[in-house]
Amino acid sequence: MSRSMRPNTPPEPDLLEGLTATVARLPGEVGLLLPGGPADLRPMLDGYAPELLVVFGFNWKIPRDILDSLRYGALNIHPSLLPKYRGPSPIPWAIRNGDRDLGMTIHRMTEKIDAGPILAQGTVGRIPEMPTHSHLWDLMKGDLGRLLTQAVSDVLAGAEGSLQPEEEATYAGFPPAEWNKITWKQRREDAHNQVRVFRFLNNGSGPVVDLDGRQVRILRTSPREHGDLTVECSDGLLWITEYEFV
After folding, report:
1. Rg of the chain over CA atoms, in angstroms?
2. Which of 20, 77, 114, 115 sees the fewest Cβ atoms within 10 Å?
3. Which of 87, 51, 48 is nearest to 68 (CA)?
4. CA distance 119 to 17
5. Are 85 and 170 in contact (CB under 8 A)?
6. Measured distance CA(170)–CA(174) in Å, rounded
7. Are 221 and 240 in contact (CB under 8 A)?
8. Dihedral of the CA atoms 206, 209, 211, 214 (nearest 10)?
9. pLDDT tens per residue, range 24-83
């Protein structure tokens, strides 16, 4: 696993929490490699002489010389229906765009990020109204074994996978700074989804806005009539259904 979002930088607090949990659950016979950057990968892996890599949630680009050295190549598990949402943040973008379902793709790794041939793919469940990391992990792990078994079996049988249609590709970069500020000048569905993704990215804490001179933390909204507190968006009313004063 990578110890930071970007190579050769200090680890973020949430990654440290994940590392601690991972170490505690590892079987005694399984080792853990924790490189500081991509250049550390080759000497670390050489001792294991791997023939196939399966990558899930690794934040850095795997060097080409490693990909070329593997007998069966490298597979990446990506939480979207590729080629939609290539890049590091597919789940936040799916929430922000109001997608109904969460997808998962297992594909061959190439030099171009998230662009290799697809081996297995499918939706894994509906994204909750107010999703949390644990909610979505539960969705993913429910179908992960089935999709991974299919992909690995096909690779060992010599399958190359299906090429991704480049004309349909979209990119999901790191969440932009403007997501941290709620504005009622946008469409109400967009404002609603921005509250949802803010809470997902901030461990359940809602954005703070000014309403009639008071600072209010928005915890839940609805584009459909629900309660008495409303704000006027560009295309109509948005109901604030859960909030707290700060």
Report:
1. 21
2. 20
3. 51
4. 32
5. yes
6. 13
7. yes
8. 90
9. 888 888 888 888 888 888 898 888 899 999 999 888 888 899 999 999 999 999 999 999
Contact 15, 3 (CB under 8 A): yes
Cross-strand partners of 211: 214
What span, in angstroms and rounded, lies between the C-alpha atoms of 67 and 73?
A: 6
- To which residue do tokens 């006027």 refer? 232
pLDDT tens digits along 78-92: 999 999 999 999 999
Judge contact between 107 and 116, C-beta under 8 A: yes
What does the block give as tokens for 58? 């690794």
CB-side neighbour CA atoms (13 Å) of 100 = 0
Residue 165 corresponds to which tokens in the numbers above?
């249609």
Q: Which residues contact 230 (CB under 8 A, 6 or more apart)?
A: 237, 238, 239, 240
Go through the chain and tell me how many residues it has: 246
**What's the CA gap between 132 and 130, in Å, rounded?**
7
pLDDT of 97 over the 90 cut: yes
Q: What are the tokens at 75?
A: 């597979």
Structural tokens at position 145: 């074994």
Q: If residue 68 lies in a helix (H) or strand (E), which one and from where to where?
A: helix 64-69
Query: CB 70: neighbour CB atoms within 10 A?
Result: 17
Q: Are 120 and 106 in contact (CB under 8 A)?
A: yes
